[in-house]
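// run 5 | inverse folding | seed 20
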């Protein structure tokens, strides 16, 4: 059971966001969205701090304390008193995966002010370790699957708040345009006709994101004479726990780089300008084998784009009745976070079929930015009755 160290957060007026802003598009976007939502709700936000940059050389050794340390006893972390200097605010909002959270708690940073932490629990085989999250005053989740599993693990309901990924209101004003994909093709001496079906795949190029399956599926369809092109938007991270992946996938990309059906764009486009690029897609393929709640998927829903997702992780819970699900194999790939892979036959078949358009009313009800904005005050004033009421409301909205 959790014991709050700070009591009520009702007097908090400003927040400091700690995130992984240097490691990927999703992490940067998540931090910026929370900053915007907090400001729109009338609270102050200090400049966003990157966790890895903050901790420097201390990050890796402290991060190794994560799961195993939580299993044997959280008291070991309390012996580490390496405090870091950050802006003075009333509330810490930590947007990090669990081994980074353990590293931050090891510094004692959570003792300086009320702390809200993001709970990652989006894969059926991933453990929720209550000891790991104990120092936080409030845990936020991005999926009801994480909420359900946390409750089963014994975390108090009043300490769990679902804050959905959201798409910005500006999505309604962005019109479909092929300008981005046409310009990208021109730069690569290729051509995309008006009849060509444009498949977008936006992701960090990392083991587990399954981008190689997207490339192979489109290659097969082109071989079958389908007029289709894949826009692969994303690049390899600077460092990776899977060093063998980059040379293997790089070899695959090099093999097909001259093919007219592959358009790889490794450049990073800031948000919200990236939305204009997504508007060039006829369909978004998001083949990642383990996701919490991808911001790209939610944004493309806001743009009224049809989407293909794997039928695993949190996807069936969050996007039921909104997207087309691709079957996965029975194989679970071992990794820091175990992940699934798509059934290639089913993936190719779904890419051939007429895409299912999202239900605009359900998209707005679940993911409009106002849903997130309206819940932000609960970070500062944790009202158990309201949190409980929202939990049952969410179960109804997501048809759980």
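// decoded
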């Amino acid at each position: 059971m959790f014991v709050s160290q700070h009591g009520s957060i009702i007097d908090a007026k400003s927040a400091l966001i700690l995130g992984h802003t240097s490691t990927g598009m999703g992490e940067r976007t998540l931090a910026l969205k929370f900053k915007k939502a907090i400001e729109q709700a009338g609270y102050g936000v200090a400049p966003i701090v990157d966790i890895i940059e903050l901790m420097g050389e201390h990050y890796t050794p402290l991060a190794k304390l994560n799961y195993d340390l939580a299993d044997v006893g959280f008291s070991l972390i309390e012996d580490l008193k390496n405090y870091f200097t950050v802006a003075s605010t009333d509330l810490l909002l930590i947007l990090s995966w669990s081994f980074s959270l353990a590293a931050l708690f090891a510094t004692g940073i959570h003792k300086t002010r009320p702390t809200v932490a993001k709970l990652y629990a989006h894969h059926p085989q991933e453990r929720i370790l209550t000891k790991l999250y104990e120092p936080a005053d409030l845990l936020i989740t991005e999926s009801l699957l994480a909420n359900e599993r946390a409750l089963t693990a014994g975390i108090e309901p009043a300490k769990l708040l679902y804050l959905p990924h959201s798409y910005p209101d500006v999505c309604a004003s962005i019109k479909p345009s092929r300008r981005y994909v046409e310009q990208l093709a021109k730069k690569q001496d290729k051509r995309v006709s008006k009849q060509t079906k444009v498949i977008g795949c936006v992701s960090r190029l990392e083991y587990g994101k399954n981008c190689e399956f997207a490339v192979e599926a489109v290659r097969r369809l082109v071989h079958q004479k389908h007029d289709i092109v894949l826009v692969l938007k994303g690049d390899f991270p600077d460092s990776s726990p899977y060093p063998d992946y980059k040379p293997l996938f790089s070899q695959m990309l090099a093999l097909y780089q001259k093919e007219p059906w592959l358009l790889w764009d490794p450049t990073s486009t800031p948000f919200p300008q990236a939305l204009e690029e997504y508007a060039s897609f006829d369909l978004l393929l998001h083949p990642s084998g383990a996701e919490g709640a991808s911001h790209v998927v939610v944004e493309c829903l806001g743009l009224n784009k049809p989407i293909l997702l794997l039928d695993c992780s949190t996807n069936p819970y969050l996007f039921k009745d909104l997207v087309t699900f691709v079957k996965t194999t029975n194989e679970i790939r071992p990794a820091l976070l175990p992940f699934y892979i798509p059934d290639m036959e089913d993936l190719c078949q779904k890419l051939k079929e007429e895409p299912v358009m999202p239900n605009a009313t359900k998209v707005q009800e679940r993911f409009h930015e106002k849903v997130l904005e309206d819940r932000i005050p609960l970070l500062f004033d944790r009202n158990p009755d309201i949190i409980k009421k929202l939990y049952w409301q969410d179960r109804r909205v997501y048809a759980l």
